[in-house]
Amino acid sequence: MHSPLIKTKFRFPRPPQFLVPRPRVTEKIGDCVHRKLTLVLAPSGYGKSTAVQAWAENAGLPCAWFTADPGDNTPGVFWRYVCAALDGILPGISMNTDYVFSSPELLEANTQINIIIDSFSEYRNDCVLIIDDMQCIVKTEIYKAILYLINYLPPCLHLIFIGRSESWHGLASQELKSQVLRVGMRDLCFKGEEIAEFYAKRNIKVENHEVQKLEAYTEGWAAALVAVAMALEKAPDKYDEAAVKEDCGKNIEQFLMEEVLSSWPEEKKRFVFETSVLDTLSEELCDCITGGDNGGQLLREMSERNEFMVSLDGRHYRYHYIFKAFLYRHISMTQPDLVEALHVRAAVWYAKQEMYPEAILHYLDGCRFAEACLLIEQQLGELVMGNSYETGLSWLGRLPKSYLDRSPKIAAFYSAYHTENGQFDLSEKWLCKADVLLDAMEESLPKKEIKNIVCLLWSYLFLKQGKTDALFAVAGKIDSKMTSPRRMARYLNFNGSDIYFYRCPISSMVKLIVEDIEDYAVLKSSYGRIIARDPGYESLAVGEYNYETNRLDEALPYLIKALEAAWSAECTGVLVPAMVNIARIKKAYGDMQGALETLSECESSLKKLNQIHWTYLIQAFSARFYLESGNIEAVNRWADARRLGIYSHINKINEFELIVYARMLMKRNQPDDARLLLLRLLSFADTEGRQHSKTEILNLLAILACQKGDAALSEEYLSQTLAIGLREGYYRSFLDEGWALLRPLKRFADRRQGDVAGENLALFSLSLIDKIKAEARTVKTGGREEADRIKEKLTAKELEVLELLYAANTNEDICVKLNISLRTVKTHTGSIYSKLGVSNRVQCNKLVRESRLFDFS
Fold first, then answer.
1. Which of 67, 52, 50, 57 has its CA nearest to residue 225?
2. pLDDT tens across 695-720, in order?
3. pTM of this prediction?
4. Angle at 845 between CA 844 and CA 846, to 5 degrees
5. Alpha carbons 58 and 37: distance in angstroms, whole number
6. Nearest Cα to Cα of residue 221 among 201, 198, 203
7. Among 26, 171, 383, 718, which is disulfide-ready with 388 (CB 3.0 to 4.6 Å)?
8. CA–CA dist 282, 303 (Å, integer)
9. Longest distance between any two alpha carbons in the chain, whole Å
């Protein structure tokens, strides 16, 4: 469960009572529907939010509003608010993205943004997301994600960012494409007629020549116009320029103090100064901290009179930023002790309402660190579960060091933070500190609960490190009755994003199954004690081990058993690898259609479980099968929809997609781009210790090098991948490449003949060659006879053209490679289609794929 969202932040603010129509401003803002991004930028007090709000209310378009504040600088918090706001346009987005915010890896992969983009891709009407106070957002990772959203923004969705200054970067490329509209201070300044209307709505009489003087004096600044209006209310029938200038002085703050506040009754002045400690004002809260009973009346009065008060929803208000800053600065300088007391009163009120984040901030501002620490400790678990580490770090950073040194809960929080960031040494250090602090505590229920959490965090650390034996030794000590199922699932989720079990952090349990059955029995027993419903990891591990070691018939029963357990436990981390491996088995037996149907069924199951990021992986695996069956159009549609590129950021969530994308580049005859991407993927796999991924990537690099005629480089890649395969027991990682890997393997085996140092690798490569050939001979669909029949029907030149067609070459590519004209290519293509009884390239490629024509060459 995440911290509750403040609903007033993603609702449109109420319009001010004295709203002045400004057609020239609304017309310019209205051009936002022709741009991806509109920036409304001006210093405080220029009416930016009011102008955008006025346009939105009359635009006749679906609009979503989110007002940011400094507390939204955690990516998870920021994007949760964005999704909640977008729910107002397209209901269901916040529900579909909710699970993403508990996973740092899913957030890093911009999964929530992909869901937003995909959700709006079918939306037909123009709509607008408005984010106010963007100057409050300073985190680089948030702006990187925003730029990702802008780059792939669906045509229907437009963005308006409102802020005091542009603190973000990277918009130049969008501006070059005329995709950014800017509305600035000059646009927002009030002009003569608007100033006259501004005062007329307040029943203040101002002559034309006085309007000109006011425009020159205020330079159209809305905040200054309001301040002058408040001064003129004492003499509404006459504008005295000299008096106003004298009273205003050289800055607005002096004017506010000497002219505006000096005319207010003491009760009202005391109220605004004391409530300036609050960001959001309500009747109950204001009465609580001031000790009065007329807070609601004053709030409504100031809002109706437009006295630097903004109504958020009729019950909640906020001061204009200039006014609040002025008030708070003044009372902090004149009555610092009172300010601390006011913060404490606010903290107590918020705590009673169970609004703990607000209470914590006020306790910290009131220097009541003991109370703040107690509340922080209570919130740290939820912050970890919601991946909101930055919030916790900001709170803890304001506590004296002595509080940090004596709290096992705080030590546990720091451990979880460092584990998520891969700083395992620091995580272990904090966990050891938590253990020491726990040992010093007297036996009690709270101690047992904290100790249980620390055991979970030790388990989580070992899980991230892939230390199977240590993980289950600690996990066996966990009392599941003292831990919520949600927290258990969070810390003991063996697979949150990998399409193969072999790529999970805990995949080393496969070795226990094979090498040390006694240790595995201990593991199984520990696992059974801490997991209420068996999700099927054990069966999956055995099934995938059998598949990888090329025992397909033995693998299938285990995979089916894992699948049934995963359905029962709704465990997508088992469901996906199990169904993917079943599809791989079908494909290995020649049933490509059955393989694709299995993946389609898996995708349907995932939609019911609302785990959308897994759907992207299944679609990528389907694209790989489409590549092998020659359905290039389907692959192109997939690649366009997934927004992939050779320079895409690589993480565990999108690694598999990018490997498939590299395969697509190879099929498209873009070897240089494919090699660049594969080298980036290789570096990532090497850094992350992902040996199974590394094998697949090295195989593809070896195939590429062989195709380019670089035998030495191909051999170098093969020596690395074969060494991993031999050590880890990988077979299918090679066999699934099929005949594309056959030529590199043959050359490798030939060059290593008599090489004593490489004898084992040469023997391994020869065994793989035999298995690839044997599998081709036993494939159920097609076979040599069908391939021979096709050869009999076509001429030698037509066979050359057919091979290039099957390799996804364009007609122009074939012209160059065979040194023939485009007309000749089309003639050969037409003849091939006629002789084979097909009508297009897709049907032709399907026939060639099923016959394995070029596999037998």
1. 50
2. 999 999 999 999 999 999 999 999 99
3. 0.80
4. 90
5. 19
6. 198
7. 383
8. 12
9. 108
